[in-house]
Amino acid sequence: MTAAPTDLVPARSEFIDSPRVEDGAALWRIARDSEVLDLNSSYSYLLWCRDFAATSVVARGADGEPVAFVTGYVRPDRPGTLVVWQVAVDHGHRGRGLAGTLLDALVARLADRGIHTVETTVTPDNTASDRLFTSFAERRGASLEREVLFDGELFPEGGHEPEVLYRIRPVAAAV
Q1: H or E element: which one contains 154?
Q2: DSSP structure string for 68-137
Q3: Fewer CB within 10 Å: N-end or C-end of the chain?
Q4: pTM to 2 decimals?
Q5: What are phi and psi of 63, to 5 degrees?
Q6: Cβ atoms within 10 A of the Cβ of 172, count?
Q7: Does an H or E element contain 52, and which?
Q8: Which of the 8 DSSP states describes residue 63?
């Protein structure tokens, strides 16, 4: 039996919902197929859907299956800061602004928790994510600060680009 969607918000032909543990495999697949995200273990997506469902969202297609997601968490040492971990849209649903819709919906959902800042990291070659977060900041009239958070040489495999921290604030009001 499938649970009824929570927080239904129309997003074109998709609807926005909280992730459920059963969605973990689909989120892993969408991340893998993105060919740009660092792929975490399949187990981590199951945990994410269980432990961080309140700070994450999925878009579901007409069949109820996830077609896009935004995962995030609230920084323990900065409870007003949402860290966006990953954003991914299935190939067949790209180019329609779904990632931005999901990001807006997540921040709106967390507004009553006092979220005023969004942080994420973007590698210099990820122009799609740069555009997503730059336009998100512009829609909200927020400032966007960038600084290298993790240099590439910190990663064990070598050849990883630096992770640039994007700090967007204040995000409370959508324009």
Answers
A1: none
A2: EEEEEEEETTEEEEEEEEEEEE-GGGTTSSHHHHHHHHHHHHHGGGT--EEEEEE-TT-HHHHHHHHHHH
A3: N
A4: 0.90
A5: -85, 0
A6: 15
A7: none
A8: T
Gyration radius from the chain CA atoms: 15
- Which stretch of DSSP H or E encloses residue 33? helix 24-34
Q: DSSP secondary-structure letter at 9?
A: E
Q: What is the pLDDT of residues 46-82, one digit of tens each?
A: 999 999 999 999 999 999 999 999 999 999 999 999 9
Measured CA to CA, the distance from residue 84 to residue 68 in angstroms comes to 14
Among candidate residues 172, 12, 27, 14, the one with its CA nearest the CA of residue 107: 172
Hey, what are 42's tokens?
């399949």
